[in-house]
Amino acid sequence: MAAVLLSSQPKSPLFLTFKPPQKTKKPVAVLNRSHKMRVPYQLNKGQSRLFHNLPSGLSMEVIFQKGLVNDPDEGGKKSSTKPPQVPLVFIHGSFHAAWCWAEHWMPFFSGYGYDCYAISLLGQGESDTPMGPASGTLQTHTTDVADFIRKEVRVPPVLLGHSFGGLIVQSYISNMTSQDLSHKPSSYEKDNSHPTLAGAVLVCSVPPSGNSGLVWRYLLTKPIAAFKVTLSLAAKAFATSLPLCKETFFSAGMEDHLVQSYQELMKESSRMPLFDLKTLNASLPPSVPRNFIEVLVLGATDDFIVDGEGLSETAHFYGVQPVCVEGVAHDMMLDTSWEKGALVILSWLKGLDKQNIY
User: Fold this and answer.
1) What pLDDT, on a 0 to 100 scale, did the predictor assign at position 32?
2) What is the pTM of this model?
3) How far apart are alpha carbons 306 and 300 in whole angstroms?
């Protein structure tokens, strides 16, 4: 399937189906692919919408933004000696799609030189819809992400996942351990089914034990909150109630018109469930060796979905200390203080640069 170019972008050799326009012409679509979302997300400047072809014949939406060569920390000066930054690949959670990263975090990290790729999982956003009651399993989503990285990303990326997307990242890490990749290779091993990562970031992630522990804790300690979460997510009441949508995903101070715009996008983003939650526990990621991979576990003090115990469980699983960002809600990348989490990740990424572990 050919790609659709919706904004001007330098030619990228990573996408074989991507055909940029001539330099003297305005961007054109190489295939008249209609939007699946009735309220399509309008890309920001410098972003392109592409489609990655999976072995199944289905395609996944990918929003791409190339890293800029000017470093804001160096007064915007161009650096010819600075090596390219590690690529970033973003994985969304339930009721979201690639657009949730394109709003703030992709422009932010692109400004610091990071090539950014945000994937819409099957059945979500502008991606194709598979057969069945759910868009996939934990394993199939993980395999789809691996297929994209293996074919389209030239060097080991940092994989970032939010909420249930974080569980997909954890599954990816577990699959890496089964491939006897405990060493850190000096070159990128593209023939692996789950290619090497430079690191992983888990943002307000569902813990490795799944969401059942979260649900039971809420039922026993916060019954009213448990009712609201169930109503908002399981019954999808967030789609019709602006106050409930704000309480579930955003800070109380977010302006209603912003909440409403994101609410509309979330309603359109998920045409089918991301997982069949009844069978999720059978495929949860097994434990991994400590220090196998650099992992940042990032949470939010005002998260209405993932509690502090869930955050601590995830951090303990990987043998790291969690970072909890003050005054931010579950949708950290869209919230009013979205830059708080972005700055924590940027600092961590620069630590990877200094270690040169990839």
Assistant:
1) 42
2) 0.84
3) 9
